[in-house]
Amino acid sequence: MRKAKPKKRYILPDPKFADTLVTRFVNNLMIDGKKSIAYSIFYDAIAMVENKTGENGLETWKKALANVSPTVEVKSRRVGGATFQVPLEVRPDRKISLGMKWMIMFTRKRGEKTMTDKLAAEIIAASKGEGGSIKKKDDTHRMAEANKAFSHFRF
Fold first, then answer.
1. How many CB atoms lie within 10 A of CB 86?
2. Domain for residue 96, yes or no?
3. pLDDT by residue (tens digit) across 20-69?
4. Cα angle at 103 between 76 and 141, to 5 degrees?
5. Separation between Cα atoms, residue 131 and residue 125, nearest integer Å
6. Measured between alpha carbons, how far is 78 from 14 in angstroms, rounded to an integer?
7. Which domain holds residue 66?
8. In this structure, what CATH number is given to the domain that contains residue 98?
9. Is residue 4 part of a domain?
10. Measured between alpha carbons, how far is 64 from 93 in angstroms, rounded to an integer?
């Protein structure tokens, strides 16, 4: 085990919206260290969302992220040779991280042609409460609900 907890790294806000949440999302979206390409994909997708919905793109994205973020999850816990799926509350920081990762994962699986189109479509779908990332959240919640009987094994 570690002697001391590692220091929390603070990330800089993005250049356009001055929001650290956007930077976190772009860092997850980025492949092979190509951050400028990831930023252009994100900004173009936000502009596309604004064109399609007529609402503020950043607010729509934040609403979509809030819709995708889970509140409970299950963790495996071994008790006396048996493994139980124990439902746990998700920490606020992890909630955002999971939401971002699921959103990006299901964006990449979509059928549109470019990544910008895929991301814009996933943001719009998630803000309405639809799409693959919302289904993933619902499945996670359903699993936690089904295993509520083992909640006394919490650690």
1. 20
2. yes
3. 999 999 999 999 999 999 999 999 999 999 999 999 999 999 999 999 99
4. 40
5. 5
6. 42
7. 20-70+91-136
8. 1.10.455.10
9. no
10. 16
Q: Give domain status of residue 84, yes or no.
A: no
Domain assignment present for residue 147? The answer is no
Token pair of 15 as six digits: 């250049």
* CA angle, residues 78, 73, 142, in degrees to nearest 5: 105
Distance from C-alpha of 60 to C-alpha of 121, rounded to nearest angstrom: 12
Q: Which amino acid is at 98?
A: L
- Judged against a pLDDT cut of 90, whether residue 140 lies above it is answered with yes
Joined together, the tokens standing for residue 127 give: 């803000």
- Give residue for tokens 């509140």: 71
Element (H, E) at 19: none
Residue 17 per-residue DSSP state: T
Task: Work out the angle between the directed axes of helices 132-146 and 92-108 (0-180°, nearest 10).
Answer: 130
